[in-house]
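[job 4417] fold queue: 2 targets
>>> target A
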Amino acid sequence: MSTKPKTEAKVPVLKGQEAEDAVLDYVKKMNRPYGAVDVAANLKGAVPKTAVQKILVSLAEKGDLVQKIYGKTTFFVANQANMEDMPTEKLASLESEHKSIEESNKALLADVKAVTTELTKVKNTPTDSELANQLEDTVKAVEKAIARLEPLRSGSTLVTAEDLAALDSEWTKWRAEWVRRKKIFNTFWSLATDALPPQDSAALAEDLGIEFDTSEHTALEKGPLCAPKSTVLGKRRR
């Protein structure tokens, strides 16, 4: 069943002296420049815009307000000569109260920061069920590792000579293919970037998504695994 949207209660429209008092009280209370449109809007329609304009001009003529004109815009502000002076004692009291509130706010902010930090730690801490799952996974991983170590402890050979030879053959085959393709790429890349400064060449490679060898690749190529006469996977190359 649909419900009708609630409508805001209508503000009674003021007239005559009540309207004038409402406008004057508002401008004096806020004690800042306002135009007729702003005053009418802030009074929530209690005094129509047209009436507000006339009242503001009338109050300015009486000396209750001061009228300021900037170009085509007119502002009205409470006549400061009619405003009550703030006693020195009250002003000092307000300043002291303001300072006390500021210190209180600082203490509250520090408390909020500490509580927020603690809340973050709590949220990042695994729950009991999550810890149980992690512990179970860890136990399974340990058992799997121990099971793989058992043949080594008993002296069994895990990889036969035939398997090593097959792996060595695959390694030799695919590394040779990698070396061939790398050489082709380097040749074409040198031709394409020969006239470019190093900085532009690097930028072009980044734009194209080209990934060059990392330090790990370089270390591998210089290592014993890629040396011409080194032992590869348990078998000496010939």
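>>> target B
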Amino acid sequence: MTPAARTEPHALLLVGHGTRDARGAEAFRSLVRDLAGRRPEVPVAGGFIELSAPPLTDAVAELTARGARRIAAVPLMLVAAGHAKGDIPAALARERRRRPGTSFAYGRPLGPHPALLDVLDRRVAAVGAEPAATTVLLVGRGSTDPDANSEVYKAARLLWEGRGHAGVETAFVSLAAPDVPAGLDRCRALGARRIVVLPYFLFTGVLPDRVHRQAAAWAATHRDVDVRHAEVIGPVEELADLVWERYREAVEGDIRMNCDACAYRIALPGFTDKVGRAQQPHHHPDDHDHDHDHHRHGRAHTH
């Protein structure tokens, strides 16, 4: 590495999952533009692993075309599920093979972080609910990774601590139980007469919309409960600040990843088949080079 390369800052690669909802994809791209404007000396690009354009490989190509050889990749995800643990590292390994001489430092997911918990609390307050008389139902995406699901419960507990809510319960919109109706049933059984349904998502999209539809359907048959709907986190200033914090951690090698309950490392009941499983990247429909390594597997999961 040349002395000039050592002094140049790492480029920032923001990695999103992707969505079929145009609003959610544009919110991601808007955040990328905002991040680029905050620190003009750092090359910034963003890409998706599936569903939305641009694909991750195009974002990496944009950065390398601008002369970047050291890239810090930050997963724009709230929990470390299969995408953050396997799909993205495998995709970065593929990009490293495609572009010899390019190195990647990989950051950790975003939550639960106090700054984002403050935003969630504001979302609850925005629907006019008095905390002491309100139970919050925090609804996560849901995963087949038990460690990822436990992170949503952790966020719910941290949201409850010291904020004065009557309670904070947890549900999931896909892949994991309890689902939204079951979560609302639990809140009601515990005595809640006002419930704020709070989607634990960064941006609008198909799944947050599903959360609202399911909650509205439940409320229609439970008239004795006041059900209110809060908004997602959104591309707020706190989110941009947190991305830069994760970027700094990656660049400085200060990655405090929690692997104590990772299904890829620890034989958890019902998930023993995941231990040591090799990971391979998603194949984005706009990634026209993917056939060249279609049969290559990514490295085994190592965080």
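[job 4417] complete. Note on B: DSSP finds nine helices and eight strands in the chain.
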